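Section 5: illustrative case.
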């Protein structure tokens, strides 16, 4: 997962210039979005659509500004699987930009409450209609999932989740939280693994040093969840994590049907 970048990092001036341009570009476009969202406050579905359109426009342009190319395998599976629970592994800020680029129609992000404090992004994330889970409080997290499921079912949304809960600091796949499995169980939606390769090496956590290069995304076959049982929750979580592990271990190998539950 922590693939070595093939090129040298941007020079100091180039690196900070790119970050500055990216921040100004995102801040300006997000400000326009926020003003528009104020007129759509009563209609969550409309706000989510607006947010998705914004994400699809801004994401690839931010990647271009930072010198990151994107290679996507199986992009057609996003539309074919919708609605579904979309899941990504998370090692870098780049993952967020990749997610914006690939954001499905009528998707709903599920993030930790700390996202609210990110300048511009937190406000846009909240006003767009995305949802938060307070992972520090188990009772609150459970209530959040119950409320989230009701919204997902009513509006026909596709939850978007990073099941590790936060960025991996060493580039390795971290343990998965169970929230996505609870949501899949309650909604009956399939799970779509979206495996990101190479982001950690291009922009590691807790740094601002970016290396130009290519990030590859594998969008794998949906995993049906209609046969899942609450009594086998740990097994279901392990199954999905195993799909990510296999793809990261063999990045050029297509996922075999043996990983897909019947």
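Designed sequence:
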């Amino acid at each position: 997962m922590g693939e070595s970048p093939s090129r040298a990092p941007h020079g100091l001036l180039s690196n900070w210039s790119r970050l500055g341009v990216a921040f100004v570009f995102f801040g300006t476009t997000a400000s326009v979005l926020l003003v528009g969202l104020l007129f759509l406050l009563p209609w969550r579905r409309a706000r989510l659509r607006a947010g998705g359109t914004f994400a699809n426009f801004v994401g690839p342009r931010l990647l271009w500004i930072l010198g990151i190319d994107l290679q996507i395998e199986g992009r057609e599976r996003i539309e074919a699987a919708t609605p579904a629970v979309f899941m990504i592994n998370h090692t870098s800020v780049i993952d967020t930009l990749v997610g914006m680029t690939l954001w499905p129609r009528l998707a709903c992000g599920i993030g930790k409450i700390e996202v609210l404090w990110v300048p511009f992004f937190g406000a846009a994330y909240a006003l767009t209609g995305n949802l938060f889970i307070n992972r520090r409080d188990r009772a609150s997290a459970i209530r959040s999932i119950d409320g989230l499921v009701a919204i997902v079912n009513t509006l026909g949304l596709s939850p978007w989740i990073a099941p590790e809960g936060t960025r991996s600091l060493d580039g390795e796949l971290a343990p998965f939280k169970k929230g996505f499995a609870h949501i899949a169980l309650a909604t009956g939606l399939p799970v779509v693994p979206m495996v990101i390769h190479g982001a950690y090496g291009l922009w590691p956590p807790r740094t601002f040093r970016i290396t130009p290069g290519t990030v590859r995304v594998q969008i794998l076959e949906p995993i049906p969840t209609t046969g899942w049982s609450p009594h086998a929750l740990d097994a279901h979580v392990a199954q999905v994590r195993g799909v990510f592990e296999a793809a990261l271990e063999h990045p050029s190998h297509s996922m075999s049907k043996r990983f897909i539950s019947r």
